[in-house]
Design brief:
Mean pLDDT: 96
Number of strands: 10
Order of helices and strands: HEHEEEEEEEHHHHHEE
Distance between the termini: 28 Å
Strand order of the largest sheet: 1-6-7-5
Shape: globular
Strand content: 15-25%
Length: about 270
DNA sequence: CGCACCCCCTGCCGGC
DNA sequence: TGCCGGCAGGGGGTGC
């Protein structure tokens, strides 16, 4: 579900609801969630009493800053962070694996059908080093020069390179395919073969697609919802993702689907070279 | 280093 | 109707 735009949409909704609030109680009831470090009980008790100083994002990770430590949350494929205004409204179901009761009466719950999501604590100062993820594509630091350096240094095809979180953080399968379409670049191209003008176009396309995703409040392919249960509206604006067989919006050639790096990959064989 | 392949987990959808 | 394979937005590990 969640790539950079979806995580950012959720983050923006959470800021006014949890920043400055105290975590009065925390319960984690799925051991898989904390596999990266600590037991559910340890993390739950470590959270109780802490105050949320900020909610930040790095790539597809949420960082809840708690004063010295940060609660790191990753949604995996199907994770959801849902907001409930009162304890009485809170309705956990069989896929609700954690919840935080915050001051003011609200509840933040973590629901994840496939259990690929994660929650763990890190010293705030160690977050970047530990997560080991790359440049933020919407930051000023993501220049054409930076992208060109990644491309030149890599023997990989361009799409798997875009999905490598150690290089650029936050691009997932949807936004990689959409960015490559808008840049007119075939996903199977060797990254090192991209000409400077193509790298420039790709950088611009990545930023435009991610911004559009945020502006339209995310891509709801099946189960993405914001914390208030609202779906995003970007999926109807996808030009290639999950559109195999449909005519290309530009040239009417049927969109093709191949498998690349074990991921479904969608492109226009005419517009993307 | 790249990459093919496997795993984790659950639900849905289409074909037979 | 029921079963089975394929597929799904995530990442991590192994071995060549």
């Amino acid at each position: 579900m969640p790539e950079l735009p979806e995580v950012e949409v959720i983050r923006q909704a959470l800021v006014p609801r949890v920043v400055g609030r105290q975590i009065e109680a925390a319960r984690i009831c799925e051991p898989r969630l904390t596999r990266r470090g600590g037991t559910p009980q340890e993390i739950g008790s470590a959270l109780a009493g802490r105050t949320v100083a900020a909610v930040r994002r790095r790539g597809k990770y949420f960082l809840f800053d708690l004063g010295g430590e940060s609660l790191i949350v990753h949604l995996g494929m199907t994770g959801q962070l849902l907001w409930w205004n009162t304890r009485e409204e809170f309705r956990p179901d069989m896929h609700t694996h954690a919840h935080l009761c915050v001051s003011g009466g609200g509840v933040l719950s973590f629901r994840d059908v496939r259990k690929f999501g994660q929650m763990f604590l890190l010293p705030t100062a160690a977050v970047d080093r530990t997560l080991g993820i790359g440049v933020e594509p919407l930051d000023d630091g993501f220049t054409a020069e930076v992208l060109r350096r990644f491309c030149r240094a890599s023997g990989a095809r361009i799409k798997p390179l875009l999905l490598d979180q150690r290089k650029v953080a936050g691009i997932g399968n949807i936004y990689a395919d959409e960015s490559l379409f808008r840049a007119g670049i075939r996903p199977t191209r060797r990254a090192s073969s991209l000409r400077p003008a193509e790298v420039q176009a790709l950088r611009r396309a990545i930023r435009a697609v991610l911004r559009a995703g945020i502006r339209h409040r995310g891509s709801s392919i099946s189960d993405f919802r914001d914390p208030c249960g609202e779906p995003g509206h970007f999926a109807p604006l996808h030009r290639v993702y999950h559109r195999h067989g449909e005519p290309c919006v530009t040239c009417r050639t049927p969109i093709r689907r191949i498998v690349l790096g074990q991921r479904g990959t969608h492109f226009c064989p005419t517009c993307q070279r």
